[in-house]
Each structure stands twice: as C-alpha cells, then as structure tokens.
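Hey,
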Amino acid sequence: MKTYLPKVEYSDRKWHLIDADGLVVGRLAVQIADILRGKNKPIFTPHIDAGDFVVVINADKVRFSGQKEYNKFYMTYSGWYSGDKYKSVSEVREKHPERIITHAVKGMLPHNRLGRAMLKKLKVYAGPDHPHGTQNPELLQVDA
C-alpha cells in the first residue's frame, strides 16, 4: 500500500476572524497555531503547509492567567555584548499589543522555514477594525 500525500490547493484556504477580547493568551495561541498548521483539517501532514489564514482583532484586550501580567517579561537581543533588553507585559501592551499574540503563536509553530511561512498567515490588530473585509472571514468562536 502506498502512502497518501495530499495536494494542497492554495485556493482552498479559508479566512477566520477571532475576537480576542477577554481571552487568555496561551489558550488562544494554541487554537490559532492549530489553524495555521492545518491540524483542524483531515489532510493534515506535518511537512505541508495546509493551514488557513487567521485575523485576530482586539489584541489589546487579551488577558493572562495567574500572575503573568506582572511577572512576565519579553526579551530582545541585539547581538551585541550586553545588548539584551527586557520589557514587561504592560510596556508591550502600550506600544505594540499585537506582539503579545504573535510572540505566543510563534513559539507554538515549527522553528524552520515552514513555521515562518505559517506565521505570515497570521494577521493581528489591536483594535476592532481590520482591512481584510473583502476576504469575508468567518467569525470563529474560541473556547477559553
């Protein structure tokens, strides 16, 4: 018996809209990563990008469980000696609230070319407006 490998049609990709208002970041990121990878489809194969597009709105209104709102820090490193910088959740939420969700989802995707291609299908916006109305994204209810 031969192994079946699905052929991915780029026209079959759907657009999903998620309202992140009041949702927990980690639980939301798991479900977004599954959609981006295509794990919700019967043709899922780990080495093929069969996922859909995801548009997340109201990224500035997500919440953290436990004490992560006060104890969690995001680190960036410039490559230079002592070039590491730490920012708290409140600092990131003020300037770039979409990076909270993007950072969480990026850690749940494969760390290679395939994962970077999957992350390009994620569109995150701080407010309730988004420019993807012509794609007719369907509202997705997320369990949180």
